[in-house]
UniProtKB/TrEMBL annotation, chain A:
Its EC number is 7.-.-.-. The keyword Glycoprotein does not apply. Belongs to the NqrB/RnfD family. Keywords: Cell membrane, Electron transport, Flavoprotein, FMN, Membrane, Phosphoprotein, Translocase, Transmembrane, Transmembrane helix, Transport. This is Ion-translocating oxidoreductase complex subunit D. Its cofactor is FMN. HAMAP family: RsxD_RnfD (MF_00462). It comes from Geothermobacter hydrogeniphilus.
Automatic annotation (TrEMBL), chain B:
This is Ion-translocating oxidoreductase complex subunit C. It is an enzyme of class 7 (translocase). It is a peripheral membrane protein. Its main location: membrane. It comes from Geothermobacter hydrogeniphilus. It holds the Pfam family RnfC_N. InterPro entries: 4Fe4S_Fe-S-bd, 4Fe4S_Fe_S_CS, Ion_transpt_RnfC/RsxC, Nuo51_FMN-bd, Nuo51_FMN-bd_sf, RnfC_N, Soluble_ligand-bd. Its cofactor is [4Fe-4S] cluster. SUPFAM superfamilies: alpha-helical ferredoxin, Nqo1 FMN-binding domain-like. Part of a membrane-bound complex that couples electron transfer with translocation of ions across the membrane. Belongs to the 4Fe4S bacterial-type ferredoxin family. RnfC subfamily. Its EC number is 7.-.-.-.
Length: 329, 438
């Protein structure tokens, strides 16, 4: 007879899906966007990516050691947070800012709460917002794209969203040539943080995730659709003050947020209905902040605010249990 | 055509190709049969033979005790050599009658065949009880109880469960292909007892030959075959009813609350034997499969045959099995040894190698929602399991732990390898135990 027989209660079959595999897939899906950013901004972008990723992994290892938690670097979640953080920073970020960002993301926003699965807020976004508030100058010094540049002394340029906001505040109207840049926005030739630049690369990555069933369509679709509809209403009311929906879609961190941040599993609802609510909420907040808030970009704040609402959303979007209706009848 | 189904569930690899095309073979008689007296849900039977007695095939060796109970019969002729506790597939040692087969396999006196045109409904029910018929899909609930709905629950629909959604298992599939006439006779008996308006046979679309065969056989009968989407757990009673007739059994309720009785096709065939031929339930068809086995087969097995015998008939093992499962991989029970006997609920025997045994350490829940999307009961497995692990049973109950049908979809789909259904089962037991006490 067998030397070792396993006894266990059912089921004895599993899908083979694992946390590591999911995280790895998200990292793969981010590679096109990371590659475009390195192409557009050159060496500084690569350095920022590397510092953020390695520092995140390092902080995770140190924390797990100090806190006596099992080492789980293999699950890839720290590396993923690092990459997402880098994609949320300008290419010209000084090295120490990347380091502080990684510290905030991993130590403060994740490990202190208990590690993977316990953090209420998206770590990369917490770090971005902390940096934005603490180092407003460095965080908004956007470099102009300079393909394959090796230089760290880059030309600065405003982001399209920033330009639009400034024009509206100063002149009460959008700049006239707004639509001229759409082709550039799509491919990534615009100022912005690393991961904001190419809509095409982000879209590819996002569709890959849906195709591989890593994420479902609910959050990105409801998020993007809400932005289109809501910003479209303002645009129809006054097209000289409010940019059109396509501009909103292609600029800033919207696609990065909709496909990669609002779909972060840990910090968003578990039910499909909850994901729809979450997406709609993110969409509304993003448009409101972009059009009426103090900052030109609202994706990070929108997602973080909705992260805070996640427990509530989960509570009120519980599926209707099987046999519920008839029981009440 | 859009196939009918239910919301939730998943698509595990079905692994039926190993045995689906293998005709049913008779498993040879073992020398010794261990027939447990409790093989059904409800009170175990009381032994009515003693050591040294000679018994004939089909003779009663244990009598039913109470309404929710059934008698037990000798699977073959021979001598009773022990009436004692023996290892039982459910995990403990339980009372059993041990028979040494004499090789004659001689029938005892059987009950007289009944003519369903003449027999009364109570007589038919009594026959089903006397022949020890229980649900053979694995639940082993006494069939006569299901067929005795109280007057205030009128039944208008009979559904035959030919879904067989568990991976690997093909016993019902072969039965439908090779012995459809037994099923049809059984349906006639059930229709007479229940007086139903409509009868359906639900079969997953991955058995097109069985669907075609039964559709043709039922062409002139008031029976409709419904092909169902291939999805686990399509064969779970409530999910099957929803798919076939669009009725949702109330939470905590029974199929009869929506006017439906569900019987497995194997049970139906056994009912036909009992009524039309007077033959008690002493054998069943089981699928023997799994990667550790030399050859997968569908066997007609006498109740009480040790599992070891079934493995031998399949050519033995190719490698040391690392896990022995009675039933399917989603809901079956692991066994400690091959010495336990096949019982009435043994729909399959699977031998897994170490490759199929997942020993991945569990990680923290990453709230991916996979368990939620897969759950056919539409509850939140991750939340309930989390409460269960903290022994917070009231919270678990508030999140509808008791609605869990223990299908295992949540655990199957969890990337963090969390034992979700296992935790939920634990909470359910605690909640029910407390209810009994109050
Ligand atoms: S919670 Fe229960 S019903 Fe839901 S998937 Fe898990 S085992 Fe199945
Ligand atoms: S499937 Fe596992 S990891 Fe995903 S939400 Fe459910 S319990 Fe958590």
């Amino acid at each position: 007879m067998a030397n070792q027989l396993y006894l266990s209660s059912s089921p004895h079959f599993s899908s083979g899906e694992s946390t590591d595999r999911l995280m790895r897939q998200v990292i793969y899906a981010l590679l096109p966007a990371a590659a475009v950013s390195v192409y557009m901004f050159g060496l500084p972008a690569l350095v920022t990516l590397l510092i953020c990723t390695l520092a995140s992994i390092g902080f995770e290892a140190v924390c797990q050691k100090l806190m006596g938690r099992p080492r789980t670097l293999g699950d890839g979640s720290a590396a993923l947070t690092g990459i997402l953080l880098a994609l949320n920073l300008p290419a010209s970020s000084p090295w120490w800012m990347s380091l502080i960002g990684a510290f905030v993301a991993i130590v403060i926003a994740k490990q202190i709460y208990g590690g993977l699965g316990c953090n209420p807020f998206n770590p990369a976004l917490v770090a971005r917002v902390v940096l934005l508030i603490s180092f407003p100058v460095q965080m908004t010094r956007w470099t102009a794209p300079a393909p394959l540049s090796l230089s760290f002394d880059s030309v600065t340029s405003a982001t399209p969203l920033g330009q639009a906001k400034e024009a509206v505040m100063l002149h009460g109207a959008l700049p006239a040539d707004l639509a001229a840049g759409f082709g550039d926005f799509f491919l990534g030739r615009m100022g912005g943080s690393l991961g904001e630049v190419s809509a095409l690369a982000l879209l590819l990555g996002g569709l890959y995730l849906i195709w591989k069933k890593v994420i479902t369509w609910h959050t990105p679709v409801s998020y993007l659709a809400t932005v289109v509809v809501f910003s479209g209403i303002f645009w129809l009311v006054d097209g000289t003050r409010y940019p059109d929906p396509l501009f909103h879609l292609l600029t800033g961190g919207l696609l990065l947020g909709a496909f990669f941040m609002a779909t972060d599993m840990v910090t968003t609802p578990v039910t499909p209905r909850g994901m729809l609510v979450f997406g709609v909420g993110c969409g509304l907040l993003t448009v409101l902040i972009r059009l009426f808030g103090g900052y030109p970009e609202g994706v990070s704040f929108a997602i973080l605010l909705m992260n805070a609402a996640t427990p509530l959303i989960d509570r009120y979007t519980q599926p209707k249990k099987f046999g519920f209706v008839l029981e009440k009848a | 055509m859009q196939l009918k189904t239910f919301p939730g569930g998943l698509h595990p690899p079905d692994n039926k190709q190993w045995s689906a095309h293998k005709p049913i073979e008779d498993c040879p008689l073992p020398e010794e049969l261990v027939v447990p007296l409790g093989q059904h849900i409800g009170a175990p039977a009381v032994p009515c033979v003693a050591v040294g007695d000679l018994v004939k095939r089909g003779q009663v060796i244990g009598e039913a005790k109470g309404f929710v109970s059934v008698p037990v019969h000798a699977p073959t002729s021979g001598e009773v050599i022990a009436v004692e506790d023996r290892p039982h597939p459910m995990g403990r040692d339980l009372p059993a009658v041990v028979i040494r087969a004499d090789g004659e396999d001689a029938w005892g006196d059987l009950l007289a065949p009944l003519d369903i045109a003449i027999a009364g409904i109570d007589e038919l029910r009594q026959r089903i009880l006397s022949c020890g018929i229980v649900g053979m899909g694995g639940a082993t609930f006494p069939a006569h109880v299901k067929l005795s709905p109280p007057d205030e629950k009128p039944i208008d629909t009979l559904i035959l469960n030919g879904v067989e959604c568990e991976p690997f298992l093909t016993a019902d599939h072969r039965l439908m292909l090779e012995e459809s006439d037994r099923i049809l006779s059984g349906i006639a008996v059930l229709q007479k007892i229940l007086g139903v308006r409509q009868t359906f046979i639900g079969i997953e679309a991955n058995k097109p030959d069985a669907i075609e065969r039964l559709s043709r056989a039922c062409a002139d009968l008031p029976v409709e075959v419904i092909p169902l989407e291939v999805k686990y757990p399509q064969g779970a009673e409530k999910q099957l009813i929803l798919a076939c007739v669009g009725r949702e059994v109330p939470s905590g309720g029974l199929p009869m609350d929506v006017g439906v009785v569900v019987q497995n096709v194997g049970t139906c065939a056994a009912i036909a034997d009992a009524v039309l031929r007077g033959i008690p339930l002493i054998e069943r068809i089981a699928t023997i499969s799994g990667p550790a086995l030399v050859e997968a087969k569908n066997l007609r097995v006498r109740i009480g045959t040790p599992l070891r015998k079934l493995v031998e008939v399949c050519g033995g093992t190719r490698v040391e099995p690392a896990k022995i499962i009675m039933g399917g991989p989603m809901m079956g029970m692991t066994q400690l040894s091959l010495e336990v006997p096949a019982i009435r609920g043994t729909s399959g025997l699977l031998l897994f190698t170490a490759d199929q045994v997942s020993t991945r350490p569990e990680g923290p829940c990453i709230r991916c929602g996979r368990c939620v999307r897969a759950c056919p009961a539409h509850i939140l497995p991750t939340t309930i399991a989390a409460y269960a692990r903290l022994d917070l049973f009231e919270e678990a109950e508030a999140y509808n732990a008791l609605d869990c049908i223990e299908c295992g979809c949540c655990t199957y789909s969890c990337p963090a390898a969390l034992p979700l259904v296992q935790s939920i089962r634990y909470a359910k037991n605690a909640i029910l135990a407390k209810r009994r006490k109050v």
